[in-house]
Design goal:
This is Bacteriophage N4 adsorption protein A. The chain is mainly alpha-helical. The chain folds into two domains: about 30-165, Serine Threonine Protein Phosphatase 5, Tetratricopeptide repeat; about 165-249, Tetratricopeptide repeat domain (Serine Threonine Protein Phosphatase 5, Tetratricopeptide repeat), CATH 1.25.40. The protein is built from 13 helices and no strands. The protein has helices at about 5-10, 30-45, 50-65, 70-85, 85-90, 100-110, 115-125, 130-145, 150-160, 165-190, 195-210, 215-225, 230-245. Helix 6 packs antiparallel against helix 7 (about 115-125), helix 8 packs antiparallel against helix 9 and helix 11 runs antiparallel to helix 12. The longest helix has 27 residues, at about 165-190.
Length: about 250
């Protein structure tokens, strides 16, 4: 049986090969050079080398200005440096609500103890619910553990407490992209082993999350063809080609 013309366009208009050779996730914040420099800042802070910690954190911030945990580190390093240099004055200074738990959250994060960091961040938020820094620390720690549903819930809670924030909007989008990539990677694996039903389901979820991402639409068309659902594959291909700026008629 000859396939509809629209499906034959897939050979040239929509490559059905997977762009994922294996399961992939989008880079989490503070990867690459910024991550390496940030680690140097954390290690310097743990050594009580506050000047170096501040310098390295500022250097990393120049590469990733949206990394709120680095601003937390700078604030803590500046405060601890002051307490070290002015012990009498520091003794009389009472920490702000959430500071001690926030400090512990940051230290745990520096040790890559993301579960502990999330736990301390939650306690800091309970003491200072209007602190965006503590909320971002929680979101970051959850995201590092791939607890993406919890991270999205934490973003929703933060918006309810603080109102719309650009940094929260950007983080939600990054997490949604990561979820979609995970779905697509699972879909390609299912397609490779002949589990076409799972492949279609995962591809639909990925397309639903990011309808403008061509790779997810290619996966959906490929899975539908493999399942023999040519009418639905034709419809999906038409939408994909239209999105790609091609005339599918």
């Amino acid at each position: 049986m000859k396939r509809p013309f629209i499906l034959s366009l897939l050979v040239t208009g929509l490559s059905l090969s997977s762009p994922f050779s294996q399961a992939e996730t989008l880079p989490l914040p503070l990867t690459g050079p910024a991550y390496a420099i940030a680690n140097e800042a954390y290690m310097a802070y743990n050594r009580k080398d506050y000047d170096l910690a501040i310098a390295k954190a500022n250097e990393a911030l120049r590469q990733r200005a949206d990394a709120s945990q680095l601003r937390d580190l700078i604030a803590l390093a500046e405060r601890d440096k002051y307490r070290r240099d002015h012990p009498q004055r520091a003794y009389k200074t009472r920490p702000k609500p959430g500071y001690l738990e926030g400090n512990q959250a940051l230290r745990a994060y520096a040790r890559h103890d993301y579960n502990g960091s999330a736990s301390h961040a939650r306690k800091a938020i309970a003491q200072a619910p209007k602190s965006l820094d503590y909320r971002m620390m929680l979101i970051e720690a959850l995201q590092r553990q791939q607890r993406l549903d919890e991270a999205q819930t934490a973003i929703n809670d933060a918006e309810q407490a603080l109102g719309p924030q650009p940094v929260l909007t950007r983080r939600r989008q990054a997490i949604q992209e990561q979820v979609a990539v995970d779905k697509a990677a699972t879909g390609y694996k299912a397609l490779a082993r002949g589990d076409n039903e799972t492949a279609v389901s995962e591809a639909r979820d990925a397309v639903r999350s990011f309808p403008k991402q061509m790779a997810y639409r290619k996966l959906l068309v490929s899975a539908l063809i493999a399942q023999g659902q040519y009418a639905e594959a034709r419809s999906a291909a038409t939408e994909a080609l239209a999105l790609n700026g091609n005339d599918a008629t």
